[in-house]
Amino acid sequence: MYIEKHLSSSLLLGVAQNDITPRYPAELVGFYRPNNLSHGTHSPLALQAAVWRLGNFLCCLLAIDHIGFCLEDANILRDKIAGILGISARQVMLCFSHTHSAPNDSTEPEYFRFLCGQAEDAVRQAASSLAPVKIAWGNAFGDIGVNRRAGAQSLDRRIGILKAVDAYSGEPRLALLRVTAHANTLKADNLLVSSDYFGAAREELSRNFSCPVMLTQGASGNVAPKYFQSQLTPPDADDPTRFVRSESACADMAHEIWDAASPVWEKLRPADTNTLFMDSVSTVFYADVPSETRALEIAEEARRESGIDGTSWLAEVRRLLHQGITFQQCQIEIQYFQLGDGCLCGVPNEIMCEFALRASHLAQDDLFYFGGYTNGCTGYFPTEEEFDLGGYEVYWSWLIYYPYHKLLSPLRRDSCKQLIEAAVRNRPGQVL
Superkingdom, according to UniProt (predicted)? Predict the structure, then answer.
C-alpha cells in the first residue's frame, strides 16, 4: 500500500472529548448473566476525537469507551463523521476500549443515537481547533496484562506512545497510548457503568502529562488485566499467583501504565513529519458450521463449564444445516493509521496478542501495532494453538454473541496466518 509524502505542509491536530455516560438504567454488554441492567455509575464513559490534517489529507481517530459496536452501527457512525469532515469513511477509525461495563448499542437504540450525537459534536469541536504540532513515537514496556490461558506466556508488553506537542511552544497537545489488556477489571458481579481502567489511566496520565490522553486497545483477546475487582473468582482471574484481587483495580492498572510510560514520555523529542495516512483493505475469511453432533458437544461443554444456554444457537445450527449451508463467510476490514514512523493497524475482532507480536516481527517494526476492536467487535479470532485447545474464546462465546456477529463458530484454523500476512503485506510504507 502506497502513501504520499506531504513535503510543504505542517501537521495539524485538533482534539475534543465528550461524555457518553447514560443517564438512565441501560442494558450492559460484556458478561453472560440473566439481567444486565445497569444500577448506577462507577466511572463516566468518554468519547474522544482527534482530527489530523497534513496538506490536503484529513483523517479522524475516535476513542470510545465501549465493548465495540456491531458492524452496522460502527459503519453508521463512520459515515456520519465522514460526512461532517467531507472525507471517506475509510479515513475514520473507531477505536473501542472494550470495557465490559457500557451499554449494548444493539439493544439500546436511544443510547446509540445519543452517542452518535456526542461524537458528531466532538468531531466538529476538534476540526475547529486544528493547530500545528510536532510528534514522536516510542515504546514503553509494562506488566498490565496476563495471558488468560493457564501455562501460556505470550504477552505484548509494548505500551506504544505517541507524543504530540504544539509546533511553536512545545506544550503537550495529546498523548496517545496503545495498551494490551482486557478492560474488564470489573467482573460479572458489577452492574455499574464504567470506563474501567481506561478512564482511570486517562485521568492519571492527563494530570501528569498536562494534556488530553487517548488510549487504544491492542490485541487483547487472550489477555486479562493483571488486577481485578470482584467478589467472584472468575475463570480469567483464577490463579492467585498471576492475578491480583484489589478494591482499587482500575487505579492500580493506571499506576502500572504511568510508571512504565512516564520515563519514555520524558525522553521523546517531537519533530515535524511529512507522513499522514489512513485507509483500509478487506479480506474474505470462512467459518465452518459444525455438524449437529459436534454442535451438541459444544453446547454441552458451554453449559457444563460456563452455565451458557445454547438452545437458540443449536436451533440456528440446525436451520443452516437443513438448508445445506456448511460454512459461512465474512469480510474483514484491515484499517491503517500511519503517522510518522508509527502505525496503528486494526480489525473488528478480538484477536489474540500473538497476532500483534507476529505482525510486528514479520514487519520488522516495533512501531507497527496490530490491534482489535477497531470499527466494531465481531468475536474472538484465535491463533492456531488456541483453536486446537477450544474453550470459551474459541467456541462457547459464539453461543451468546452469534446474533451480533452473524457467525456460528470461529474462523477456520489457518485464518490467523492469513490475517497476519495480509495486515503486514498491505501496510503503508512505500512512497509515491
Answer: Bacteria
In angstroms, what is the C-alpha Rg of the chain?
21
Answer whether 287's CB lies under 8 Å from 328's CB: yes
User: Angle at the Cα of 338 (from 213 to 9), degrees rounded to 5?
Assistant: 90
Tell whether the torsion through CA atoms of 141, 147, 153 and 155 is positive or negative: negative
Contact 24, 97 (CB under 8 A): no
Q: At what angle do helices 397-405 and 292-306 cross, to 10 degrees?
A: 110
Query: d(Cα 127, Cα 84) in Å, to the nearest integer?
Result: 10
Contact (Cβ atoms closer than 8 angstroms) between residue 286 and residue 328: yes
Q: Which residue has the cell 490463579?
A: 239
Interacting residues of 261 by C-beta distance below 8 A, sequence separation 6+? 140, 142, 159, 161, 177, 205
CB 288 within 8 A of CB 415: no
| Residue 77 φ/ψ region, left for φ over 0, alpha for ψ in the -120 to 50 degree band, beta for the rest | alpha
Using the structure block, give the residue that is written with the C-alpha cell 501455562.
Answer: 151
Q: CA 255, 259, 264, 267 torsion: positive or negative?
A: positive
Backbone CA torsion sign across 169, 171, 174, 177 = positive
CA gap 146, 222 in Å, rounded: 8
What the block records as the C-alpha cell of 47 is: 468519547
**C-alpha grid cell for residue 426?**
498491505
Measuring CA to CA, how many Å separate 160 from each of 32, 138, 148?
32, 6, 22
3-class DSSP state of 245? strand
Alpha-carbon gap, residue 87 to 133, rounded angstroms? 21
Rounded Cα gap, residues 373 and 99, in angstroms: 11
Alpha helices in 210-248 (DSSP H): none
Which of 52-61, 107-116, 242-251, 381-390 has the least mean pLDDT?
381-390
- What is the β-pairing status of strands 145-147 and 131-141? unpaired
Cβ partners under 8 Å of residue 111, min gap 6: 22, 26, 103, 105
In angstroms, how far is CA 79 from the centroid of its own chain? 19
Q: Are 6 and 57 in contact (CB under 8 A)?
A: yes
Rounded-to-integer distance, Cα 246 and Cα 239, Å: 14
Q: What is the pTM of this model?
A: 0.94
- The answer to whether residue 406 scores a pLDDT higher than 80 is yes
